[in-house]
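User: Can you help me understand a structure? I only have the sequence.
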Amino acid sequence: MGDPHDGLPKSGWCPGTVRDAAGGIVALSLATFLAVTTEMLPVGLLPLIGAELDISESTTGLLVTVYAFMVAALAVPLTVWTARLPRKGLLVGTLVAYTASNVIVAVAPAFAALAAGRAVGGLAHALFFSVCIGYGARLVRPHFTGRALSLVTAGASAGFVLGVPLSTSLGTAVGWRAAFGVLAAVSALTAVLVAALLPAVAGGGGGQDDPGRGSSGARLAVVSVTNAVVYLGQYSVYTYVAVVLLAAGLSVSCVGPVLLALGGLGLLGTWYAGVSLDRHPRASILTVLGVLALGLVALGLTFPALGGVLAAAALWGAGAGGVASVFQTAAIRTRGASPDVVGALVNSTANVGIGAGAALGGAVLAGPGLGSLPFVGAALVLAGVGVVLVARRAFPASP
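Assistant: Let's start by predicting it. Here is the structure, written out as C-alpha cells:
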C-alpha cells in the first residue's frame, strides 16, 4: 500500500506536525463534539421520551439501536461510493444532515417519526466518522497520528462531558424536544464553523488509497472485530446509564450533572491516550480496557448502593474516554486499507457494538435484570483484553 499522504500537496495542504495542523484538528474536534452529542443524546433522555410516548425504556433504547445499525450497515459502502468526492464538502454535508435529523426528532409526533429522524442522523454518522478519521490522519505525518487522532477524539469526549449532560439537563428542565431543537441549531452553527476552519485535503479514489493485502488486512480485521466487542460491552451498559442511576436512588434532576462529571473523567482517558499512544500503543490499550472493565465490575458489585455506584461509574468513565483513540490509532497503523476505508471499518464496527449493545442491554433488563447488566458488559470488555494480549501483531508494543 502506498503512503496515505501521497498526493496531498495538490490540495494545498501538506501534512506536518500537530501544531501545523492545529486549525484543522480544532475543526474536526468541534465536529466530533456535535456528532457524539447527536448520537448519544437519547441516552440521557430515555425515561422522558418513553414517558411522553408511552413506550417502555427497552423500546426507547431502540432509538440508539436504529441509529447505530444504520452506521454499521452503511459506513463502508457509503465511504467507497463517495471516495472521489472532495473530503471537506462531504464532511460539511454530513453536518447539514445532522441538523436535519435533530429538527425531525424535535417535532416528531410519534415514535415512528422519531425513529425516522434518528435514521437520517445514522446516515450522516455512517459517513462522518469514516471521513473524519481519515481526515485527521491526513492532516499530520504518520508518526503524529496517535496524538492527532486523540485530539480529534477529545471532541467526542467533550460531547459526553458537555454536550450530552447539558442537553440532558435542558431536556429535564424544559422538555426533551427543546433539547433536540437546540442541538439542531448547534449543528447548523458547527457546519458553518467547520467550513471556515478546516483545510481541504486530497483523499479517496487515488492510487495512494489502494487497500493493503495479506497480513496488514488481517491485522486490520483483528482490530476491527475487537473494537466491536469492546463497544458491545460498553454500550450494553452505557445506553441504560440513566436507568442505572435512577434505580440506585439518584433523582431525575441530578442525572445530567452526574453524566457531566462522568464525561469530565472521560477526558482523563482521552488525555492518557494522547500522551502514550505514539510511544507505547500496546500498553496504552491494555490500560484503557483494564480500567474500563474494572469500573464495570465495580458497578455490578456495588449496585444499588448509590455511593458505590457513583464511585464505580467514575472509574468506568475514565476508562471509556480512551477507547475511541486507542482503536482508531491501532486501525490506522495496521495500514490494512486507505485512511478513509479504515475510518469506515472502525466506524462501522463501533456502531455494530453500540447498536447490539443497546439491544443486548434491553434483553438483560427484560430478563436477568438491571443488576446483571454491568457484569455482562465487563465480560465482553475482558474478551477484548484477551484478544489484545494474544494478537501481538495487530496490537504491537511500538508504533
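Now, to help you interpret it: The chain has 15 helices and no strands. Residues 161 and 263 are 4 Å apart (CA to CA). Let me know which part you'd like to focus on.
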